[in-house]
Request: fold
Amino acid sequence: MLSENEIISTLEMLKNEHLDVRTVTLGINLFDCVSHDLNTLKKNIHNKIIKVAGNLVNVCDRIGEKYGIPVVNKRISVSPAAVFGAPFSTSQFVEIAIALNLAATEANVDFIGGFTALVEKGISKGDRALIEAIPEALTETDRVCSSINVASSRAGINMDAVLIMGKIIKKAAQLTSDKDGLACAKLCVFANIPQDIPFMAGAYLGIGEAEAVINVGVSGPGVVKKAIDRAIASDPDIDLGRIAELIKRTSYKVTRIGELIGREVADHLKIRFGVVDLSLAPTPNVGDSVGEIFQSLGLLSIGVPGSTAALALLNNAVKTGGAFASSHVGGLSGAFIPVSEDLNISESVRAGYLSLEKLEALTSVCSVGLDMVAIPGNTSEDTIAAIIADEMAIGVINKKTTAARLIPVPGKKAGESAYFGGLLGKATIMHVNNADGSNRFIRFGGLIPAPIQNLTN
Reply:
């Protein structure tokens, strides 16, 4: 139970510290929509999404207003499209994406995820057709998000899929060159993808999930920063152990708020409640930044020596506090470091404090990976695939989720700016070693074996 002072501090979080429920994501199983006829499949998809999600936005708005807690985004995730659309061709998968987009538009949600394939061990006919459809599908739609799982700690890294994704990312960027490669902002390549992510672009409804489920994503980097600032101001001698305890207590309160909203939305919709994903997901707004937390912890900027240790402290404390607050914590949960979506992190790249290599090191202890990273437009397919492979290796060896959301911005080079708009923000394009070169290692292909499990050190 929260004390009176903790209740008051929670109200302060809502009023002045950017606390919100970042997303309520409704997962919908579409496997019963399958048909050998494309038009029938599209009709079934539309009818089921509208039937299940038609009232989602109204319910979220009503409950958010009731508690004074804004639900910023309302989203839908669906079963992996590569599975329910397995018989269809690449061009037909583009039509499936358009059907998903139309249903999401009618339901008035912000995004729909699940244009997804799970290829960590091999690529089926349906997987390949979906993957090849991604550039056009994400160009032709504005709400569809795509995720491809190319690696896992049990299967290893599918390097054939990694190389293909290098090509797909490059093509998606070229098709949206007038928008700085915006299609790539809706595409995420994963290792160890969870089945219950509420955050985009990774959200999809896992095969082991219920018929329909409500997952909630809660964010609060501004809340954590202000808590640290207050604690240091009142006790300049506070040590890192006590700061970690403070972050845990703050995360506990934020998680409880998320579960409260999620369960009430689920009850109103008569849908099962899934998980709270407590993730410090920033926005481009001042005061709502993960990067600013590093400065509150005494660092000049994210990216300078000490940043990895600080992020490890932050991530573990957030997860610990969330796990204590709820038996249903899932998704990604922890600290996100998306470059373009965090004004402070984007500025650290511009100022030269944060390089791609240091960012990769940080992803060994964060909860996502190389997220919303703008790179030069001349970066080759091989180099993009190699960056992905490095990130996948971090996830596979450490048995954690990692991902790469890379945006090769057409016509622009390192040091220039890319503009994506809204929550996606803007970014300084990062320097990439051997940006336009070839990579023989990547082109060997095959499967990098899973790590041995009993000799971890």
Remarks:
- The mean pLDDT is 90.
- Residues 1-457 form a domain with the Anaerobic Ribonucleotide-triphosphate Reductase Large Chain fold (CATH 3.20.70.20).
